């Protein structure tokens, strides 16, 4: 608050003539009348200014809209300019205090109000000053002249302040217009339709147990509100991660301290996960010149160079049409080492070589080993095929990062010493185009790992130089592979010949019975012990053995799934005898989950969040259960990485059976992907369970790492957790797009911004 300026009072004594006193008394009364009049005007002006401040927009249980503000009733046009809804029914925040101090640049209207109040206060203080001076026995002429000068100065000050505030409002309006132009295609900014409110949070009975009493809910709510009121956002302190990897930092793969201590790297141990003892809570910096990702399908052909500023692969593989530098873009002609004439031609070549592969019908979910820049998987979308592409973070810098930036599914992984993070018998087809994996060594351990995750009756497509070159090295590998695959009972169905590309592809088929295993003259490779669980896949060492093929009608893997897309909505045949995750019979549980997510997605997510779905391509469901959320997005031009946390029911085989894909993960650790990989993350009752064993701030830092700027996070959880996440999101300068609560359940939608902190935290484990 600016203080009024008081004139200096000296110690001189003046004579007290009655006439002078009378005049001064009259002047004092006049000043008092003027001050009263202007004070009333100032109060009216300030009342109008208050109405411009942000208002809390709530959605009540019956769907009506209410507004809260300490100033009383507000006009309709005082709603937030962005049009997005807020619900603070169960989560109270003193926004005008903490956020204004921490985020002054984001509260433009409040700054404007404060500046005008300051001018008004100055005017009042000047009048008070003049009133005090009026009791001094100044000469009449001197008093009038001084009053006139001060009034003129005050008038000029007020006019200047108003002009400044008008300029601020013009700048704000221009910024708002620019924002509206950029976001004009976001869709209707509306609250949930009435039908969706009843569907929003009715699916959580088994996660949260039996329904709680009103007394317990009320007590929890009081504690939640108290926490929200008292917790200061400044309690979350963010810093930039300083690492050798810089903007590409992946905590569990860039732990150089742990890698230096490895006794051996001969089995690619240095490319496997080595997570730091404590998950980092710092934020990964953005690459210089980063721009919002190009939308699919244009992104398949080109991406911004500065988003992934790596040229080594273009230099090494440019002649093979992998990737090229073209001005400010990196372009992808669609080729590869084994398909120089394009991925689509190569895909058709495989289909012609073996029509039974039947892309997009029988073969729906495939694994692409050593994927390069994943052009093969990117073009398989046109055949209704999902490809889980993977490659290590190695000297071929950024190949998986290229894939993700293009909008193609990919993860960082390596065929090393541990099993892949997938269940057994889930991939319809496995592909390896010159992937340089030594399948034949050490008893075929690596190829036997592919055998574990390949469905009985599934195909292995191997188009590598040993298939068609006759030099001593390639001929030796082919001989060793022929012996190994025969002992594994794989049937060499066909060797296709592509004359245009000058390559061949050997296509093998995994057996559907154990007859061949039992007739082998030698038990090599050996069959795994019956006690060995083929579905155990999180940090499990590889073994050079084979699991028997399931043959009982009730066993998973004994039959091929329904053709796509029927398999998406039909409960798996082997699911009938089990109890579902939500407590019902398994088929009913599966079907009700599917219907639930279809309703939520169609009624709420697609229409009620203000999300521009045309800009969404890479999605992750952080706790997928049956994959119902991904299934509900089937007709969208998106792909969903379904994550099943390691402490959740093992439903990942069901997700693959539906023709979707996913992976196991522990969210107390970092995910095997580059920063800025996903456009949207979805978490259904995940964070409340993670709080019991993880540092929630570290989990949110990981979310920030893998989410792109302008990317969205949708969270469904209990009110207490939603309140905590909202506070963390605000401390990250994220935009709160929507918050909703009903009973003790809540929904939060936030958008990551480009904000990065200025302070730096050195991660010693990631410094070379």
Automatic annotation (TrEMBL):
The protein's matches in PANTHER family, at most eight in alphabetical order, are given as: METHYLTRANSFERASE PMT24-RELATED, SAM-DEPENDENT METHYLTRANSFERASE
Q: Do you know which Gene3D superfamilies this protein is assigned to?
A: Vaccinia Virus protein VP39
Q: What is its main location?
A: membrane
Q: Which family does it belong to?
A: Belongs to the methyltransferase superfamily.
Q: Name one GO biological process term.
A: methylation
Q: Where is the composition biased (Acidic residues)?
A: 152-162
Q: Which residues form a coiled coil?
A: none
Superkingdom of the organism of origin: Eukaryota
Which positions, given as ranges, span the membrane? 21-38
How is this protein named in the record?
Answer: Putative methyltransferase PMT25
Membrane topology term: Single-pass type II membrane protein
Compositional bias annotation for Polar residues: 86-97
